[in-house]
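Q: How do we represent a protein-ligand complex in a form that can be generated token by token?
A: Start from the inputs.
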Amino acid sequence: MSNSRVVPFFDYPRLFLDHQVEFIDVVKDVASRGAFIMQKDLREFELALASYTGAKHAIGVANATDGLELALMAIGIQPGDEVICCSHTMLATAAAIVTAGGKPVPVELGWDNLIDGDAVEAAITRHTVGIMPTQLNGRTCDMDRIMAIADKHGLFVVEDAAQALGSKFKGKAAGTFGKAAAISFYPAKVLGCFGDGGGVITSDGYMYDRVFQLHDHGRDIDGEVRCWGRNSRLDNLQAAILSYGLKSYDKVVDRRRAIARKYQELLGGIEELMLPPSPDANADHFDVYQNYELQAVRRDELRVFLRNNGIGTLIQWGGKAVHQFERLGFTCRLPKVERFFERCIMLPMNVFLSDDDVVYICDKVHKFYRG
Ligand SMILES: Cc1ncc(COP(=O)(O)O)c(C=O)c1O
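Then emit the structure tokens for the protein with pyridoxal-5'-phosphate bound:
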């Protein structure tokens, strides 16, 4: 193995190039049928997505942010309604609450860096209507706890499963615990399309009907207008591309879990790092490793060192938790989340990595800390 190489954080061109013959066939097939909007390819993908997750229904939408907003609109949240989410999430989680008319209440993370059940309970007020846990980095929260809190206080749960297709808690898929969930098909997601894309999954017939109407100008499945709505449809072509990807999704997840195992094996002994749980750490969790996010002492120096050695890393969301976007009106302090954001960094995690790439990355991390 050479001592220098380039390992981008995510190699976007390879998303297409590695399967270009097959993708060109998909495009030819769909485009030559003129099947661009709400055609059979979309329906087939929705059925495959529902079946893959175990949800009764799936609806292709323009992106996961829309999906979350539409789910909240379908529930009917009202101005002043508070929805609790973790501050360790993409701003999109909180933005969907705001654009649906509610008020996001960001709370602390727990030991697993996901929403903390105690913090959720402490944040409940008479205005609280729901909880929106984020199944972050491909890991599903302890949903026993979240659902118990929701049941006790009469709150709805909508999962932000943007990063968690295929992830499970106690054998049940992310996105199937609450009333509905949204999944993202942004290109760098474990299942990514060639642009923006998302899906809403639900097993609740009312939610299905309502989200369906809201995402297609208020029209129901027979084209009858039932309410005000808008256009947030998943393109038929993107759906066909996603169906192709979904067929080999389990293999992709296996590979990502193998890479996570390798990172654990090669980096586990470095005391300056706090790694995410390894795939075999806890049988209750099946993680799909959307990201490999760890905490590192001297994080910024490590990042520069890796960059100088050709290795791309990412600090999520510009290095800010939701409540740290002060211009958006947040005034709370959440010390655990803030501490996390001082030290978090993502190493490359995708199927384009070879075993040698992973060894190279780990070798450089060792060099940084041990010289
Ligand atoms: C946790 C989380 N929520 C929501 C979103 C929004 O997804 P989309 O870009 O499909 O709107 C993302 C996308 O990266 C995400 O990571």
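Residues 59 and 131 are 22 Å apart (CA to CA). The mean pLDDT is 97.
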